[in-house]
Amino acid sequence: MQTTDSAALEDAAHDSTELDDRDVRALTEVHSVLDDVGRVRDAPDLYLVVSGSGSEYMVDLRTESCECADARHRDVTCKHIRRAQFATGQREIPAWVDTDALDGQLGEHVSGARVAATDGGVDAVVGESTTDTEDTEECDECADLPAGWPCARCFVAGEAEFTDEEGDR
Predict the structure, then answer these.
(1) How many helices and strands, by DSSP H and E, does the chain display?
(2) CA nearest 49: which of 92, 96, 82?
(3) CA triple 126-52-55, angle to 5 deg
(4) What is the pLDDT of residues 101-124, one digit of tens each?
(5) Cα dist. 57→15, 100, 136, 163 in Å?
(6) What does the buried/exposed string (b/e) look like for 44-69 if buried means 16 or more CB atoms within 10 Å of the residue's CB?
(7) pLDDT single digits (tens) 69-87
């Protein structure tokens, strides 16, 4: 994403009542929303949001809570909660948003398709998730392991399972 894209989105947000500054930051700043923690803990509304600086925040979309200071001390819906909502499709991105201005990782690590915007009730899919796909290619780490052994990331993400040489689990 270029700085001009972010600035254009911010300018448009000031002209609209649909997005505020936290929405803009949630859509344009580098963040990864990981649903692995929710699947491991059998808590489908629990996500780990990792910022571009490497800070990690646990977000519970069921209770709309986050560990960050903004959510805890200012009693607001922080950018981490909003990012998780946008990435999972629980919060709709307005159709007028320029998809080129969005962070390219939006929804990348969340199971299923990520919806970037809607237009007249029709979802416009920006990209597909890297998890839960039928035809995933073996990652570099898995390729370095013995046949049938997935790397920890692929195993936790549900992208691969342990199999024997015949492909049985």
Answers:
(1) 7, 6
(2) 82
(3) 125
(4) 888 888 787 876 455 444 444 444
(5) 30, 26, 28, 34
(6) eebbbbbbeeeeebebbbeebebbbe
(7) 999 999 889 999 999 999 9
What is the C-alpha to C-alpha distance for residues 52 and 25, in angstroms, rounded to an integer? 12
Give the Cα separation of 101 and 24 in Å (integer): 10
Say what angle helices 3-14 and 21-28 make with each other, to 10 degrees: 150
Among 62, 80, 94, CA closest to 22: 80
In this structure, the chain runs to a length of 169
User: Which helix H or strand E contains 93, and what residues bound it?
Assistant: none
H or E element: which one contains 51?
strand 46-51
Domain limits, the chain: 3-127, 134-169
- CA-CA distance, 99 to 106, in Å (whole number)? 10
Per-residue pLDDT at 100 exceeds 50: yes
